Amino acid sequence: MKTQENFVLLADAYKYSHHKLYYPGTTKIYSYLESRGGQFDETTFFGLQYFLKYYLEGQVITKEKIDEAEEFLTQVFGRTDVFDRSKFDYILEKYNGRLPVRIKAVPEGTVVPVNNVLMTIENTDPECFWLSNFLETLLMQVWYPCTVATVSREVRKIVEEYFEETASEESKAGIDFVLNDFGFRGVSSVESAGLGGAAHLISFRGSDTLMGSMMAKRYYDAQKVYGLSVPATEHSVCTLLGEEGELEVFKHILKTFPTGVVACVSDSFDIFRACSEYWGTELKDLVLSRDGVLVIRPDSGDPVFTLLRVFDILFTKFGYTINKKGYKVLPPQVRVIQGDGVNVPAIRSIYGALKVNGISAENLVLGMGGALLQKVDRDTQKFAFKCSYAEINGKPVDVQKHPVELDTHGKLVQSFKKSKAGQLKLIRTDEGFQTVRKETPTGYEDQMITVFENGAIMNTSSFEEIKERAVVTAVQLIS
């Protein structure tokens, strides 16, 4: 499925003046993408393949699109000397509307420490020097799936850490389903749901965001549906008979799904009464006789204090065992899911509190919505797209900015926004990834590969390959 958007209009308005503003004689613009730091020390690269396939592959410029852009941009600028249709007519006539640029990038799923190059772009036709950074607007949007993939993977690291410390070995098979994506309704678009949802599925498989699995299949040739879910209630179900009918609704839910996993939001009126009097007393035998798991969901209140009280009640009512690591575990028919107020710091606090109170991490799964798919922005990992090299009147030129700024004491200091200079490559040594100049002899291969050239996609990654590259290892947990 190709986009219905007009490629010629997929840039910030000011970009259309740059073909005139670049210094006369410019024939090459070479730029790169990096994460300059941010909330996490490393970034999971993901999502570029979608943008290449959906927006850039094949013929993306036509006469009709240029005509539309000319009429539109004349009104945008209120003048006729900014947009120059001849620049796009040239690409249409010489390349049949295919883009004369080369893009190199690290293979998707690669986890790279911040402050390293992730992608480069350069024009392959000297007449189209302006095109490299014209594409910044669109290509920069890869920050979003990269950031969601990074957040999800960081949660995976936390979960694996606490499972290693407090959970039984057999329970580790369920880690794939500990963090569940509840973010579809909270994102800004269906496209965001697909990109963010697929990014989450690199590290986990629990998801209610169907578009994530669809994205993985359509653009990454996923061999199966990775996002899996279970029957679950919402408040419209559990409040249908009012407070006095909540117990009857709970009973109906258990009878409707007598086997398998079923999740039930239980805070509609009083989560503690629901756990103590309903699930733990009136329905206790029915719960324990099921060939499946009841997942009880609190959905309000402070996550840590609420969960500790809920577990205290459930341990009292249903009993518990002590696993080999010395932590309490509910009967296998009962588990808890926390889906409210969940973000990375909260997850660490929640599992830390469970550990301190002798409760195994295997008792709890998580649902994450806005904090996973929406409460991120380009500065979460400080993504930047900058020109680092040019050719002007036949001469190579290093391009770089290194601004100064005032610190809190009014002293001039180097800004973190200092950019890199020259043509770049990313090498991987025994010490890890390192960004160096392209001409630097290192004995190591460039980890970036050509993924797009002159309108054609040159290399692709399957979703299975991406998941394998992003796997969290025991070494990473220790570090």
UniProtKB/TrEMBL annotation:
Superkingdom, taxonomy of origin: Bacteria
EC code(s) of this entry: 2.4.2.12
Residue span, Nicotinamide phosphoribosyltransferase N-terminal domain: 6-103
One Pfam match: NAPRTase
Residue numbers binding beta-nicotinamide D-ribonucleotide: 208, 297-299, 339-340, 370, 378
Residues involved in diphosphate binding: 185, 235, 297
UniProt pathway annotation: Cofactor biosynthesis; NAD(+) biosynthesis; nicotinamide D-ribonucleotide from 5-phospho-alpha-D-ribose 1-diphosphate and nicotinamide: step 1/1
Protein's UniProt keywords contain Transferase: yes
SUPFAM superfamilies referenced in this protein's UniProt entry, alphabetically: Nicotinate/Quinolinate PRTase C-terminal domain-like (SSF51690)
Domain Nicotinate/nicotinamide phosphoribosyltransferase per the UniProt entry, residue ranges: 177-405
Gene Ontology MF: a single term: nicotinamide phosphoribosyltransferase activity
Record's catalysed reaction(s): beta-nicotinamide D-ribonucleotide + diphosphate = 5-phospho-alpha-D-ribose 1-diphosphate + nicotinamide + H(+)
UniProt keyword Cell division, yes or no: no
Keywords: Glycosyltransferase, Pyridine nucleotide biosynthesis, Transferase
A GO biological process held by the record: NAD+ biosynthetic process
UniProt xrefs under NCBIfam families: PRK09198.1
Membership in a protein family: Belongs to the NAPRTase family.
The name this protein goes by in its record: Nicotinamide phosphoribosyltransferase
